[in-house]
Amino acid sequence: MGTTKQITVEVPEEHAEVLDRAVESGTVEDLAEAANLGFENVVAEQLDFEARMEEKIIPRLQEMRENPSIALTSEQMRAKMREELHARRAEAAWP
């Protein structure tokens, strides 16, 4: 992991109680492990978000700037979303 940086965090009392129980039950070794697990989740989500932006969103926006005709109007997008919603509801319906 490389170098580390010490930080102090405050959590709501209810969270602290749950974290204490997690340590007592052996779910985590100590509060530092619990904090690290949480931070790892946030870091993973952020890196995933950044990768999607770089790989999909930004290129698509550049594509639409170069060729605005491929973009959907708000009305077209609403219609497309309604169609998708109806299709999903139809799939979920019991026969």
Explain the overall architecture:
The protein is mostly helical. It has one domain (13-92). 72% of the residues lie in helices and 0% in strands. The chain has three helices and no strands. The model has no long low-confidence stretch (mean pLDDT 93).
> What is the count of structural domains?
1
Unreliably modeled segments = none
> What is the helix tally?
3
Mind summarizing the main beta sheet?
A: none
Summarize model confidence as the mean pLDDT. Answer: 93
- Shape descriptor reads flat
Order of helices and strands: HHH
Question: What share of the residues lie within helices?
Answer: over 70%
The number of E-state strands comes to 0
Amount of beta strand: under 5%
Computed over alpha carbons, the radius of gyration is 23 Å
Through-space gap between termini: 53 Å
What class would the helix/strand composition place it in?
mainly alpha
SSE layout and pairing:
Blueprint: H1 13-25, H2 31-66, H3 74-92
Offer a concise description of the structure.
This protein is mostly helical.
Attribute tags:
95 residues; mainly alpha; 3 helices; flat
